[in-house]
Amino acid sequence: MSTTTTFEFKEPPPIVSTAATAPILPQARVPLAFDTPVDLHLHTYASDGFWSPSGLIDDLVQRGIAVAAVCDHDTQDSVLEAIALGERRGVHIVPGTEVTVRWGGRQWHLLVYGIRPDDERPEARGFIDLMDGHDRRFQELAVDARRRVEASGRPIPSVVREVGERKMMPVHILRAMIADKHVPRLKEAAELVVELGGNFTYDTPLEEVVQVVREAGGVSVLAHPGRADLGLALTAKTLDQLLKEAPIDGIEGHYRTHTDADTARYRKMAGARGLLIGAGSDSHGPGAPVDPRPWHANWAKGLLVRLGFEVADPDDGLVWTPGMDPLAAKPPKRERKKPAERQAVTV
Ligand SMILES: [Zn+2]
Ligand SMILES: [Zn+2]
Fold this sequence. Notes:
TIM Barrel; two-stranded parallel sheet; binds zinc ion; 33% helix; alpha/beta; 2 domains
């Protein structure tokens, strides 16, 4: 009885991973309407964002977003606080993180869902240890970068304000370098740190991360496949090569910079390979660069089912078609031919 159009793609099966399938969230089988607003990619000030967990939850409540994932870069520091606050306010917070990974000679961002940072199961040990390692390494890089910048005769008193109550991360050093007028932008700040013998980023091979995520029963989704700032946007050919080496569970089909054409392409790519489809704004703060967004639950149905939710189907059976998302990015007038920056600093 479902109607189909040429733009509708078959939803992937709910479970494609061979990883443990025990419920990974306490609120297993929470029913959602097909259009329940969800945002599965959000940052807080635990990494490079500006949302505090409470500010974020307030905003989600105000927008009516019922399910959201806190996915800070390489740390889960805000996850437990956000889950606790969300429980009180009726927002289901999915534990997440966005791990910096390396594959094919470049960095990628891998969203990992469903593993809490306080998970004490032995099968989660590998992932928890990996996260601890990333967290520690980024803090060491920040201390080292600060020392190098200051030793080069560039005082950065603004670092105190940039760090605030948080752990010092490389991005705070880069922002302080801008605030203290040594460089105009993040790009130049990062380049200067590298020039001074330091670094601002760190990664682990994709295969290793996917392995420990699967052991822990988590779900891995390649972030923003259509963005071309870390390298080229993801093509079907690259995805097939990647899947041979690292069995990721899905790709983020719905993303703030994706046009309808991008979304159609990535939904089709995912559907043809039995991959899950993610949906996230990548909001880092109020309007920075966008606010959290009300993606429809059934656009990311397979992923939400894996995470312990039930998602109803719309009466007409239509999942997603171009034009359905009023916030989709508008196509550029001309295709930009800007070369990709290899070590781009991204948010
Ligand atoms: Zn990212
Ligand atoms: Zn992100």
